[in-house]
């Protein structure tokens, strides 16, 4: 273990994907404006000189940088980018207490601080910085693009709108005052109990054991997070999950308020068969301008875009790279 900026970092390679010998890798840290130290894996192409384009990657929501985001970052480095995959505040190797909580404003700040970090590297062209958000962090990426004009291209992959899930439930099945009041009462009762016990109990990650009648998308989550394919010991989704009261702020927040004012490029990548597809398509409708694009991956499910699926061929990296490069000019 090494210690930097007050947080401990694992030196060994402990990712769920193989290391590419054509890419240099090292651990880095940086602080956000809330004073929280963030841990990241930085991937750089070998034998390349001059200032390079850069990309910051995070997600899925409840995952760690050793999972999907690291895979994306390493691949982008192979393609000539300085790339970092970071753990959000309160999760993984990043700092912040209490643990296993989240907040949309802090998560946006996490992305912005990653841009701060990249902008100040000697090897990076600060006029050519992009971000990639996966799953719930796809929504956070678009929210960040609403405020950070330094970001020249934003890619949201297999996107979740976490504020919509928190307020309306899956597939908008709880989109009524009655259901929201019921949810508010439950989470506030839990907050009272947490204060009394001075602890934040976890709500549970991906369900385990998997019920036979579980929906297909839950089975897909299980196949990624609970098997050697994607399991990681620091991943919330692979283990105990978020704190039970972590969703308080998302229940009272809506993302994408100024999405129609994003001037820089945005690409939303969705799986044709993804249960989350409706959220990405609705988010795309909010965007304006001819530098916005919706790309549907044929036959792909939500989790196929985490690691490429069974054949590791579903992530459209060529599309992502070409979109980013074409909008860095």
Quickly describe the structure.
The chain has 10 helices and 10 strands. The protein has helices spanning 68-78, 104-119, 136-145, 162-168, 177-197, 216-225, 248-251, 277-286, 304-307, 317-326; strands at residues 2-4, 7-9, 23-31, 37-45, 52-58, 82-86, 124-134, 151-157, 265-271, 292-297.
How would you describe this protein?
- This protein is α/β, with parallel strands linked by helices and 329 residues long.
- It has a domain of 230 residues: Alpha/Beta hydrolase fold, catalytic domain (Rossmann fold), CATH 3.40.50.
- The chain has ten helices and ten strands.
- It has an eight-stranded mixed beta sheet, sandwiched between helices. Strands 1-2 form a two-stranded antiparallel ribbon.
- A hairpin with a 2-residue loop joins β1 and β2.
- α2 crosses α3.
- The longest helix is centred in the middle third of the chain and has 21 residues.
- The mean pLDDT is 97.
- By DSSP (H or I, 4+ residues per run), the number of helices equals 10
| Shape estimate | globular
* CATH-level-2 architecture of the domain at 2-161 and 257-326: 3-Layer(aba) Sandwich
Q: State mean pLDDT (0 to 100 scale).
A: 97
CATH class of the domain at 2-161 and 257-326: Alpha Beta
- Please give the largest β-sheet: 8 strands, mixed
Key structural traits:
329 residues, alpha/beta, Rossmann fold, two-stranded antiparallel ribbon
What's the topology here?
Elements: E1 2-4, E2 7-9, E3 23-31, E4 37-45, E5 52-58, H1 68-78, E6 82-86, H2 104-119, E7 124-134, H3 136-145, E8 151-157, H4 162-168, H5 177-197, H6 216-225, H7 248-251, E9 265-271, H8 277-286, E10 292-297, H9 304-307, H10 317-326
Parallel strand pairs: 5-6, 5-7, 7-8, 8-9, 9-10
Antiparallel strand pairs: 1-2, 3-4, 4-6
């Amino acid at each position: 273990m090494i210690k930097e900026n007050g947080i401990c970092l694992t030196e060994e390679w402990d990712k769920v994907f193989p290391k590419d010998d054509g890419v240099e890798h090292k651990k880095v840290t940086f602080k956000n404006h809330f004073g929280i130290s963030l841990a990241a894996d930085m991937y750089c192409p070998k034998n390349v000189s001059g200032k390079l384009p850069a990309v910051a990657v995070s997600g899925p929501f409840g995952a760690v940088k050793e999972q999907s985001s690291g895979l994306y970052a390493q691949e982008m480095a192979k393609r000539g980018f300085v790339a970092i995959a970071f753990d959000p505040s309160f999760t993984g190797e990043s700092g912040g207490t209490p643990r296993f909580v989240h907040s949309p404003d802090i998560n946006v700040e996490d992305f912005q601080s990653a841009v701060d970090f990249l902008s100040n590297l000697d090897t990076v062209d600060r006029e050519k910085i992009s971000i990639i958000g996966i799953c719930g962090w796809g929504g956070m990426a678009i929210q960040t693009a609403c405020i950070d004009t330094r970001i020249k291209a934003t890619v949201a992959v297999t996107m979740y709108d976490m504020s919509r899930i928190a307020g309306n439930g899956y597939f908008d099945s709880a989109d009524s005052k009655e259901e929201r009041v019921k949810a508010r009462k439950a989470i506030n009762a839990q907050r009272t109990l947490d204060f009394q016990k001075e602890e934040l109990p976890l709500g549970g990650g991906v369900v385990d054991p998997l019920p036979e009648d579980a929906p297909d998308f839950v089975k897909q989550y299980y196949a990624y997070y609970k098997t050697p394919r994607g399991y990681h010991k620091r991943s919330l989704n692979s283990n105990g999950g978020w704190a039970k009261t972590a969703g308080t702020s998302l229940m009272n927040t809506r993302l994408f308020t100024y999405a129609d004012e994003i001037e820089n490029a945005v690409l939303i990548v969705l799986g044709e068969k993804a249960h989350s597809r409706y959220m990405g398509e609705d988010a795309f409708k909010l965007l304006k301008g001819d530098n916005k694009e919706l790309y549907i991956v044929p036959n792909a499910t939500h989790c196929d875009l985490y690691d490429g699926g069974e054949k590791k061929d579903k992530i459209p990296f060529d599309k992502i790279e070409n979109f980013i490069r074409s909008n860095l000019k």
